[in-house]
Amino acid sequence: MEPGVEDFVPNDSMELSKWPHAPDQITDVLAKLETFVMDSLSSIYDGLKSINDRMEALESKQNDLKTKMKPYIDIDDIDEPFPEIDLPVRCPSVPLMSPRRPRRKIADPDAPKRALPAFYWFCNEHRPSVVEEFPAKSVGEVAKELGRRWALLSCEEKTKYSEIERIDLARYEKEKSAYEQRFKGP
Prior knowledge:
The protein is mainly alpha-helical. Among the domains are: 20-81; 118-184, Orthogonal Bundle (DNA Binding (I), subunit A), CATH 1.10.30. It has five helices and no strands. Helix 3 (118-133) crosses helix 4 (139-152) and helix 3 packs across helix 5. The termini are far apart.
């Protein structure tokens, strides 16, 4: 049976000696509660004091601005510390944010595809076997595994893919020059 409120509050039928909490324990609890409340109040007071200091600093800056702007604006007529200004209504065609970057040009679908690096040729060849070996791995983990395997290759093994890259680069240069010739005219 859990203790209820009746267990902690003495009544007329109870003797104080039978009460489960001795008076010493009650005074200890009250002392701890008082300490907690006082600490909380002091931290709140410190916070309010720092806010008050900041408000005083802002008011002094505002007064400095008033004295500097006095020749230009009749500030004495303003009662509010920060007067409201009626802003003009914006036209929907005018962007609210800074202008965006210009959009990229859409790539021509007839343009030749760029040459692939040697590592990409290696990945194209070995990706199916890595996916078969590790079917539960994500795309990023498969790419990490391919990168690890590429780093372990010797220079002789990498030359095979470098040759494929060189042939692909020659193909790209040839297709690119033919593509550019179409736009130059006779």
